[in-house]
Design a protein that fits this description.
The chain is α+β, with helices and mostly antiparallel strands. The protein folds into two domains: 2-57, no CATH class; 101-381, Trypsin-like serine proteases (Thrombin, subunit H, Beta Barrel), CATH 2.40.10. Helix content is 13%, strand content 25%. It has helices at 2-15, 19-23, 154-161, 218-221, 294-304, 374-381, and strands at 30-32, 39-41, 54-58, 108-109, 118-124, 136-146, 149-152, 172-176, 186-187, 190-191, 194-203, 233-237, 264-268, 285-292, 315-320, 335-339, 345-351, 365-369. The strands form four sheets. The protein has a six-stranded antiparallel barrel with strand order 13-14-15-18-17-16. A six-stranded antiparallel β-barrel has the order 5-6-7-12-11-8. It has a three-stranded antiparallel beta sheet with strand order 1-3-2, with no helix packed on it. β16 and β17 form a beta hairpin. This is Peptidase S1 domain-containing protein.
């Protein structure tokens, strides 16, 4: 019942935008009760185009003759280098197109396109028809490491397919360029988001169950198994993405790591408030963090969570700079990035698997540590 209500809300939210006059502005499109005597009917956006009216492209005789005058500025030449991103900056890794703001649990709101490699991973909640935003829900996140590969957690895959049946490619939807998960995001008249099917999910061979076909709802509830060690999965997209201002790849770390972390951030669509489980953020939120080496984490993380022994395989830990901030449910698979010496954002890890007990503001949280997993990542993706 809860899932049905969520799906309905998603459909309504996407329908609240009148897409016809916005996206067909160059054709002077209008929403009318009828196109008769005015022009031709355009069905590109179906019912979403005009919210029940008809999307009409006017005949030439009905195109307004009064238009805003345009002034032409003579072109000048200059020998100075252009300011802002270069022509190929979108192809470079770790280059944000804006100056990112920093919210997670009690964090700071981001702006659209702040973190262009953050991927919303949506999974089916209703129906058996073609997967789309209306029959899916954003359970977790991932990070774009190449134009056709998303790195996420294995537990994100459990969240995505553990309660559904059928093949992966009809149950997981990756959304690149996402900011608000409940309504379309625009830059001018262009969609920021790209919705792409996931055609394969490869789970790290060291994870406690590495065949997604075996995941069931019981895996979500079973606390006896170790779901934090080797917590990685690679999602292959149906088609390669085209990079731009709102869709870019993050840099991956070198095989050797010197642990001189400086400016570091996390991002996700997780819970807004630890006291209200289920109230996830519609907009991407981010926070400043400190990332610690596994050696440091062995000493302090175990004390905090009453665990003994070495850190779990392929994990480290981190802590928010703001003592009122922490990760929470729904942030699973979100980015953990730090700036490298070239000023580019490098993927240090993923938010591992926060549970309700780990939502306490100011506490350490577990990170799936990417650097020692790079050999496996490269062997699968070829990047």
């Amino acid at each position: 019942m809860i899932f049905s209500v969520i799906a309905g809300a998603l459909i309504i939210s996407f329908a609240n935008a009148q897409l016809c006059p916005l996206l067909l502005k160059s054709k002077h499109a209008e929403c009318r009760d009828s196109c008769d005597g005015f022009g031709t009917l355009d069905t590109t956006f179906q019912i979403m185009g005009c919210l029940g009216q008809q999307c009409c492209i006017p005949d030439p005789a009905n195109i307004p003759t009064t238009v805003e005058s345009e002034t032409t500025t003579p072109m000048t030449t200059t020998t100075q280098p252009p300011s802002g991103p270069t022509m190929n900056s979108a192809e470079e890794c770790g280059m944000a197109s804006t100056n990112p703001t920093t919210r997670i649990l009690q964090g700071s709101m981001t702006k659209p396109c702040d973190w262009p490699w953050q991927i919303s991973v949506r999974s089916r909640i209703v129906g058996t028809d073609e997967i789309n935003p209306g029959n899916t829900f954003p359970w977790c996140s991932g990070v774009l490491i190449d134009n056709q590969w998303v790195l996420t957690t294995a537990y994100c895959v459990i969240l995505s397919v553990g309660t559904v049946t059928g093949v992966i490619e009809n149950n997981i939807l990756a959304v690149a360029g996402e900011h608000n998960t409940k309504q379309p995001d625009f830059s001018g008249t262009e969609y920021n988001e790209k919705f792409i099917k996931v055609v394969d999910a490869i789970v790290h061979p060291g994870y406690y169950k590495n065949d997604p076909a075996t995941y069931t709802g019981a895996d979500l509830a079973d606390s006896a198994d170790d779901k934090t060690s080797n917590n990685f999965a690679l999602l292959k997209l149906q088609t390669p993405l085209e990079f731009g201002d709102c869709i870019r790849k993050v840099c991956t770390p070198l095989m050797e790591d010197c642990w001189t972390k400086k400016e570091c951030k996390i991002a996700g669509w997780g819970n807004k408030n630890a006291a209200n489980i289920g109230e996830i953020s519609e907009e991407l939120v981010a926070a400043d963090i400190m990332v610690y080496s596994p050696a440091v984490c062995e000493a302090v993380y175990g004390i905090q969570f009453n665990e003994t022994g070495p850190m779990k395989q392929l994990t480290t830990c981190a802590k928010a700079v703001n003592p009122e901030t922490n990760v929470c449910l729904g942030d699973n698979g979100g980015m953990v990035v730090c700036k490298n010496d070239q000023g580019k954002w490098t993927l240090e890890g993923l938010i591992n698997r926060p549970n309700h007990e780990q939502c306490d503001p100011g506490s350490l949280f577990l990170v799936s540590y990417v650097q020692p997993a790079m050999e496996w990542i490269k062997s699968v993706t070829g990047i």
